[in-house]
Amino acid sequence: MKFVLVSLALASAATLTTATSHELARVPVHRQAKRCTGTIASLDDVAAAVKCATVNIKSFTVPAGKTFELDLADGAVVNLQGDITFGSKSWAGPLMLIQGKDIRFNGGGHKLDRQGAKLWDALGSNGGVTKPKFFKVKASGVMDNFTLLNQPVQGFSVSNPAKLVMSNIVVDVRAGAKLGHNTDAFDISAAKDLTITKATIYNQDDCVAINDGDGITIQDSTCTGGHGISVGSIKSNKTVRNVLIKNNRIIDNDNGLRIKTYDAQTGASVSGVHYTGNVATGCKKYGVIIQQDYTNEGATGKTTVGVPISGVHFTGDTNTVSVASGAKRVYILCAKGSCSDFDFSNLKTSGGSAGSITNVSVKNYSL
Ligand SMILES: *[C@@H]1O[C@H](CO)[C@@H](O)[C@H](O)[C@H]1NC(C)=O
Ligand SMILES: *[C@@H]1O[C@H](CO)[C@@H](O)[C@H](O)[C@H]1NC(C)=O
Ligand SMILES: *[C@@H]1O[C@H](CO)[C@@H](O)[C@H](O)[C@H]1NC(C)=O
């Protein structure tokens, strides 16, 4: 038995030395915690503190241009005991990074504060100055009860290697209503068994964007003012499967519920997206939109069989979607033969105009 363990350890060490940094996120790194309590009150304290089973974080300011990186021991418990502020600088970020296996991050209701508007220029990640992404999460375990305040551009980038529950998290970019752009709250990629629950989000882009992953649940969350809950945008070699979007409230977003894929991609697919009990109100452009012609610069109106979308179900509890006047209730644009098994039996729509459905037969819904 001992021998087996040693050779496994050697094998994984060998994998680690040859892995690229992107692959490292997927390799579970096992690090035994020391029985100590580490305290972090500046970046200088981090290296010693993260060896401990318990890590307490006091209020402090992370200097501009530095990442606050928590590379935790297995099973570590982190207690945020004050607000963290981040200095302002034009760079790519991330401002914060957390890695670890079966960790617990207790936010204690505190704030991670990027201190407002210094880099907002209405161009987001499409132009203007380079803006740092805020919080990269590569951990498994639980993270709860804190606020991400005023990210310059995208908020959370989540790539969890195993089960992770993120609950009671607030992402508040209300101060960016005029100049904030691409302030996605949760960007999800290479995720596995992820639940986001009871999140409260005010922003100017996707509330949630699911780009790549398997087993993703978004539930009991409220999205205000952004672009809605999205799967995508999907490009080549990205797979999204087994998504549950449940009991969320989507208030005054451009879109309510959306699936967006790029035209002419290879090796990508979306399968098994289940919507139940969601309520979207005041959708400004579309209530439900599923499009295979997405680009960041705007829809092309042209589709090819590139990213098949299968198993899109509005079933279970009623999904209620109401759109503003001038908006469309349902818009679906598929390439012929590229969308299948759409069942909208528990979708109720109202307001605006009906919209259109192209190249897919949708069970139990008519425009
Ligand atoms: C967040 O933590 C604070 C401080 O411990 C606590 O008072 C509050 O109830 C917590 N909120 C949630 C939703 O857990
Ligand atoms: C997708 O994966 C294939 C096979 O690994 C690779 O040849 C191709 O370059 C990838 N495409 C993109 C856009 O990453
Ligand atoms: C729908 O399918 C038809 C037949 O293949 C195709 O000609 C048309 O371009 C498709 N519509 C769109 C918008 O892709």
From TrEMBL:
The active site is at residue 227. One of its GO terms (molecular function) is polygalacturonase activity. Residues 1-19 form the signal peptide. InterPro entries: Glyco_hydro_28 (IPR000743), Glycosyl_hydrlase_28 (IPR050434), PbH1 (IPR006626), Pectin_lyas_fold (IPR012334), Pectin_lyase_fold/virulence (IPR011050). It catalyses: (1,4-alpha-D-galacturonosyl)n+m + H2O = (1,4-alpha-D-galacturonosyl)n + (1,4-alpha-D-galacturonosyl)m. GO terms for biological process: cell wall organization; pectin catabolic process. The keyword rRNA processing does not apply. The keyword Ribonucleoprotein does not apply. One of its GO terms (cellular component) is extracellular region. Its EC number is 3.2.1.15. Keywords: Cell wall biogenesis/degradation, Disulfide bond, Glycosidase, Hydrolase, Repeat, Signal. PANTHER family: POLYGALACTURONASE. Belongs to the glycosyl hydrolase 28 family. This is endo-polygalacturonase. It comes from Rhodotorula diobovata.
